[in-house]
């Protein structure tokens, strides 16, 4: 038996021993400190990179991420709060928060069990390693320093509010609802950056942001949902000064949150209107929104359209579906408006949405989701 084989056996058996020691009954790793990731064993295997830490081993791959590879790792450490950040820690925090493509994205991908891009694959990255194993070591090291930095920042004395907009799959939403019902806590497998600016969080809930796998019918087909998480926590670290545009709070991974509320919020008033309500709405005068070209002016009534809608017994949902279909369905014939009047009319229709506008090609445009889901997350011990 060669030295290498013996060494391999020794490593394997010590890993197994360690594994037994840290594994709790449920099979979930206990007491795995994030600092252990700095000394994780990292080596390339076919089709990926193996990372061994705390007695377990995960394989990071180019696609098809491992489910929650760093589950069981404890990232929160209150014992260094208020300590001065080293130069390296400040720089790491600033890089992570301030430049998604150069740093944040690689950190995020690693957390999902994916290999971050090599420099030769994507020149936007500042992790310039030329092979995956070395890259993974670099990103792990960066991430541990990031957590060191975040843990040194003071935690707020009272719960602080921050918001995160994201599209999440149906199953994840159902799990959140279940957790609300049963009182079970939820957590995030990786670093999250909700914003202190609630209106900014809506930018991530637009139909433009829906996952490419089900775009543009994610919501219509109940595949993925626009969810606004409202954090109320004493565990978020204020890093807004590093990104004055997005004003983020940094939330370390694997913290427990109580799911205090899950609510559907209608953002297209027409979506829930009966025929009578819709007819009334179309037959009345309304103001344009302040971000629209015709701000200060009003639109409506549209008595002909109201009458036609009544005749067809169209409710708000039917009207929205008809609206989304384009002009093949008698829309223009029903409107009987001349070409020059289309723009004001469609601006009028798009003025009804309740979410803040998003930047479009020629200025602000409406966020046209019919509804969003608001989820309130609180520290398990509550906030009041
Ligand atoms: C989506 O869910 C809603 C509410 O549960 C339901 O009314 C609707 O029919 C569903 N749509 C599809 C396409 O499954
Ligand atoms: C629209 O409003 C006008 C004026 O109040 C009224 O005469 C008409 O009947 C209304 N149309 C519908 C379809 O309700």
TrEMBL record:
Top-level division of the source organism's lineage: Eukaryota
Q: Keywords of this protein's UniProt record, alphabetized?
A: Signal
Endpoints of the signal sequence: 1-21
Question: What's the protein here called?
Answer: ClpC protein
Organism in which the protein naturally occurs: Symbiodinium natans
């Amino acid at each position: 038996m060669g030295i290498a084989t013996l060494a391999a056996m020794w490593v394997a058996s010590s890993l197994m021993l360690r594994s037994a020691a840290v594994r709790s009954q449920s099979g979930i790793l206990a007491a795995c400190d994030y600092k252990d990731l700095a000394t994780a064993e990292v080596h390339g295997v076919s089709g990926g990179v193996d990372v061994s830490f705390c007695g377990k081993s995960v394989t990071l791959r180019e696609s098809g991420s491992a489910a929650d590879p760093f589950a069981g790792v404890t990232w929160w450490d209150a014992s260094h709060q208020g300590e001065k950040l080293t130069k390296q820690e400040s720089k790491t925090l600033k890089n992570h928060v301030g430049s998604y493509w150069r740093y944040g994205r690689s950190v995020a991908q690693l957390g999902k069990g994916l290999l971050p891009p090599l420099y030769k694959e994507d020149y936007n990255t500042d992790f310039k390693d030329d092979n995956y194993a070395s890259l993974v070591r670099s990103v792990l090291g960066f991430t541990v320093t990031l957590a060191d930095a975040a843990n040194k920042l003071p935690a707020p004395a009272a719960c602080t509010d921050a918001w995160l907009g994201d599209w999440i799959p149906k199953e994840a939403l159902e799990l959140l609802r279940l957790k609300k019902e049963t009182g079970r806590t939820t957590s995030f497998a990786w670093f999250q950056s909700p914003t202190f600016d609630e209106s900014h969080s809506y930018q991530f809930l637009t139909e433009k942001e829906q996952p490419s796998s089900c775009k543009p019918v994610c919501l219509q087909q109940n595949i993925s949902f626009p969810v606004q998480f409202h954090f109320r926590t004493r565990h978020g670290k204020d890093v807004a000064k590093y990104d004055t545009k997005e004003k983020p709070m940094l939330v370390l991974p694997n913290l427990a949150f109580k799911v205090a509320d899950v609510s559907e919020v209608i953002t297209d008033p027409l979506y829930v209107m009966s025929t009578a309500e819709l007819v009334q709405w179309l037959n009345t005068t309304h103001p344009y929104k302040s971000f629209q070209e015709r701000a200060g002016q009003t639109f409506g009534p549209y008595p002909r359209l109201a009458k036609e809608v009544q005749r067809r017994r169209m409710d708000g949902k039917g009207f929205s579906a008809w609206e989304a279909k384009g002009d093949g369905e008698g829309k223009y014939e029903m409107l009987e408006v001349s070409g020059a009047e289309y723009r004001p009319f469609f601006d009028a229709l798009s003025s009804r949405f309740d979410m803040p506008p998003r930047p479009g090609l020629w200025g602000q445009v409406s966020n046209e989701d019919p509804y969003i889901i608001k989820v309130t997350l609180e520290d398990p011990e509550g906030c009041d």
